[in-house]
């Protein structure tokens, strides 16, 4: 026992971080419970068109979360767990597959490419350069836009909103409107019950609120009329690893070079800033940041995160990334990589039971999307300024009354859910930002990299007229 404790001490430097094996194990279990909802929510998102099965996606979700969390713990020794990103999976499903018409292997090929590209950027030190090049307002807007996108999907999956098209619109003319669904069906009751439980528990400070809301909604679905869900025919059939290795780079041929590059770029930006925000947020809570507000040895967790994107695409789980829910484990004392090694091990131990996810209906996972979407909009209420001493300080909200700051944010965050495309939102935001700066006589304030990205997106939006594109 003493020998094992000595090995753990040498590997994770427990005494240096003022923690113990018991504390780290409990923190790891806490983190797993807070993150476990992704085992059900990721399949609910990626199986939207029936091309993939719930068991397949649940399997690779547990696999990549387990393996890459353990890698993060052993290599980077940081209390930051990994799993397929909620929001990034929506980009894959609804933009790459739904809007662009790619197959899932082709969509996962974009994820692998993006992961490899970010890995190169990390190894060459360019990732920090790119992070500094993109203005803060656009970083915030991307996060909020994805949050609203997820929020909308949650409402849609819950059945709370109905899309009305054609001549049946309330105004009696052709078109499309969204309408509140009459609250008179049992599936809606299940979704509302799950959402109510989740919100109530969050209001009481329960860290596992999302998981409990999902489980309660599933239980309710079994007892109400309407055949909303059913017990799987083979609940303990075990994992299905058939998606491992099912990715393709055929998207280059189907989309063309320009659209492929911009799809990779937009996905990279969405992944990019989410990761940095998570590492800084969790790092601050865990005491990792130095006196200048910087994260020492950031290259290690960034490298694991970028390789996790590659791994997520390679097994068709969508891009895996760092999880802000790791803060739950940190809040109960977790400080080292041992915490996420425990979390990863629990994801792997869940593999024999993934077939049970078939019992969780889509309406039961919808509250998780709604709540996570809401949480992602929180960045609207704060901003970061770097003082003369180099310290990063959180100050006031985004100034929506200032067209230079507010308009790019509104364009970015609204176009994502309205066009069901993360790419459209990011591209329009970049273009709006540089145009406003240009007409205000502040073109010199725009980083050359931002000009380049905006120009590329402008070509993308003009592809129909310039290149007679059909995509």
Topology:
Blueprint: H1 2-12, H2 21-35, H3 38-46, H4 54-76, E1 82-84, H5 88-99, H6 104-124, H7 126-133, H8 136-158, E2 161-165, E3 176-180, H9 186-203, H10 209-223, H11 251-255, H12 257-286, H13 299-314, E4 320-322, H14 326-331, H15 337-349, H16 362-376, E5 383-386, E6 392-395, H17 403-419, H18 422-439, H19 448-461, H20 463-467
Antiparallel strand pairs: 1-4, 2-3, 5-6
Helix pairs in contact: 2-15, 3-4, 4-13, 4-15, 5-6, 6-12, 6-13, 8-12, 8-16, 8-17, 8-18, 9-10, 9-16, 10-16, 12-18, 17-18, 18-19
Describe, in plain words, how this protein is organized in 3D:
- The chain is about 60% helix and about 5% strand.
- It has about 475 residues and is mainly alpha-helical.
- It has one domain (about 1-465).
- Strands 1-4 form a two-stranded antiparallel sheet. The protein has a two-stranded antiparallel ribbon with strand order 2-3.
- Strand 5 and strand 6 form a beta hairpin.
- Helix 6 (about 105-125) crosses helix 12 and helix 8 (about 135-160) crosses helix 12 (about 255-285).
- The termini are far apart.
DSSP helix fraction: 55-70%
Mean pLDDT: 87
Total of DSSP H or I helical runs spanning 4+ residues: 20
Indicate how many domains the architecture comprises.
1
Mind summarizing the main beta sheet? 2 strands, antiparallel
Q: SSE order in H/E notation?
A: HHHHEHHHHEEHHHHHEHHHEEHHHH
**Number of DSSP strand runs:** 6
Unreliable residue runs: none
For the terminal residues, how far apart are their CA atoms?
62 Å
